[in-house]
Amino acid sequence: MKKEGYRASTITSRIKSLRGLSRKSNLLDPESVKAAIAGLAVSEARKEVLVCAYAGLCKQLGIHFENPRYRRVEKLPFIPVESEVDQLIAGMGKKTATYLQALKEWGCRAGELWNLRWEDLDLENGTVNITPEKNSSPRQLRVSSKLSAMLNNLPRKGSLVFGAGSLDDFARWFYMKRLQIAIKLSNPRIRKIGFKTLRHFKASTLYRQTRDILLVKATLGHKDIRNTLVYTHLLGEQDSDWTCKTAKSLTEASSLIESGFEYVTELDGTKLFRKRK
After folding, report:
1. Which of 1, 21, 23, 254 is the 20 to 30 Å CA partner of 95?
2. Secondary structure of residue 207 in the 3-state scheme
3. Residue 134 shares a structural domain with residue 163
4. Within 10 A of 46 (CB to CB), how many other CB atoms are there?
């Protein structure tokens, strides 16, 4: 796979899939593998991934394998409310909180953010350059004053912003801490918030605020707009719900705009802002 140009993340994923199958079946016996996959209590999409991984192994070893028919069922992504995201971030340590805040604001992929280098950041001008993965497009995004302060508070021990460790190890620690926070707050929905969830959160929030699907596409780095159009289906009853804030100074108004609020009007010297929940 490496010689054929597959990314390291894809190769690692295939290895994990095959290792899991090897514990439940004989990888040299396609019928044994088919039975194992059919008996797994996982989604059709996951079974499709396992079949793809095993088909690649069979091709390499010259084993005849007829792919079973599994078709992933498209579902709308889970989108938490902003207060739940903020509660999760607030319960994390400095490094993890900064990582989650960046995912929330930029909507990048977990691997894109994990590989972020200090040289990609221009905190003085408030911008970041995202190097794409999975055939996405490169993009430059804004860095809020809040996130800039959090990034400046991280230690600079190397070229990578979040260190040279394993993203998988980092994710496992995050899952354990997330469970603790969900139990503490008695909110099981927090257990459903993952790295990809925050990408969905950014996309749906940005579309609600702007109704500009091309802006959402550019922000996420999608090359095919069909991958972006799913977020147009997430506008339900809550689309008419608003959070309102007031500002009496330029500093307060700037802070609200950075947080996603839009200006509405001014009454008695007080500026009114709103943001969809």
Report:
1. 254
2. helix
3. yes
4. 15
| Distance (Å, whole) CA 246 – CA 263 | 9
As a whole number of angstroms, the distance between CA 165 and CA 33 comes to: 33
Contact 94, 139 (CB under 8 A): no
Q: Are 272 and 264 in contact (CB under 8 A)?
A: yes
**For position 237, what pLDDT does the model report?**
42
Same domain, yes or no, for 108 and 199? yes
Contacts of 129 (CB under 8 A, 6+ apart): 120, 138, 139, 140
Question: Has residue 67 been placed in a domain?
Answer: no
pLDDT band for position 24 (cuts 50, 70, 90): very high
Q: Are the CB atoms for 128 and 139 separated by under 8 Å?
A: no
pLDDT tens per residue across span 151-201: 999 999 899 999 888 898 999 999 999 999 999 999 999 999 999 999 999
Smallest CA-to-CA distance from 10 within 152, 176, 147, 134 is with 134
Full domain range(s) for residue 86: 82-234
pTM of the model: 0.74
Amino acid at 88: L
Helix axes 213-220, 195-210, angle to 10 degrees: 150
